[in-house]
Amino acid sequence: MQYVVQLLQCIDFNKIVPYNDSATAENDAFLRMDNNTLWALINFTQPGYDKLKPTLTYSIRMSTALIGDTYISDRFYTLDPRSRPLYDLKYITFGFAYLQDMVEQSIIQEHTGRESTPGIVLQQFPYPCYIEDQFIKAVSKTFPLFMVLSWVFACSMICKSIVYEKQERLKEMMRVMGLSNGVHWTAWFIDSIVVMIITAVLLSLLLVYGHVIQHSNPVIIFIFLVSFCVATIAQSFLYSVLFDQANIAAASGGIIYFLLYLPYPFLSNWLNVLPPLVNYFITIPQDHNHTDHSSNQPSSDPEPDVTQLIRSFLPAANIHKISGSEVTYVLPQDPASMGAYVSLFESLSENRAKLGIDSYGISDTSLEEVIEFLYFISGSSQVVFVR
């Protein structure tokens, strides 16, 4: 019995801790994250009211490891559904959806005075039948290396042939006879692509009908390989102008061709952890009221009010692209502009109805990480800490 009592003393039954300000809650939250005792932070952004208002704004903040990112698609496209609990269903697995439901149910009960409220049932969207090929998943990461090794010899030989012609002054002789530069490079391209197309045809047939990638369309595979061959020939032409000795060009061209592949696997693995290098992008749904109806085309400034608001905080912001019903702006990423982000997002939230904005999002990093950073440096008013 004494052992059971000692075990119960290790359990903290005080699961909900209220705070009067966000600074204290955030400091405590960071400490609790170190020993994995933080579940979530609920931030109510309408302070100073003794009674619950009909409209309540709050946010649920959790560790970025416990919630999904806001990328539109995965880094590597797969045919299988997003059904992995620890990777694809984080909002359910780690309790974000349940916590949101509890908060919503409590708010409804306070407004209606009813103890029993309708429940909510979550169900994943039906997914069509698909073929799961584990071999493709395994070979897809090494297939680029195989392609580079397959054509590294072709790259070396193209460089050697072109430089040998230059080394023996044959090109100058043909130029004297009236051969133009365009005809010269076109001839070398045709000479190189003919041999490589034969290789691409054989490789396409072997890959598809040899049951390596049996479910792929051989025409698509052939077009992909031919595109790679054209890129290889273009690279070889570039390397050939850097050398005057044929043998040196052959060796150096192959080495450079292979070395330029090496950064790919590292960048591919570090894609999600590399910091943004240039800019942030903010995407805002385009309001149809800002469309030039006389031409049925978006105007050059599709969101004049939104653009003016964004540039009032970040003068260097520019429209990046207009895609359907969305407008994407480029925002400066320099540290001096970080303070303006807080004011910008607060102003966008306050003027959403006036500007006709339903939502907005930031790319180049996880949206949850950006929001956590902005709330950390801005602070809020009334916080309930849940662990």
Automatic annotation (TrEMBL):
GO terms for molecular function: ABC-type transporter activity; lipid transporter activity. The keyword Transmembrane applies. This is ATP-binding cassette sub-family A member 1-like. Its main location: membrane. One of its GO terms (cellular component) is membrane. Keywords: Membrane, Transmembrane, Transmembrane helix. It is a multi-pass membrane protein. Residues 133-262 form the ABC-2 type transporter transmembrane domain. The chain crosses the membrane at residues 143-163, 183-207, 219-242, 248-267.
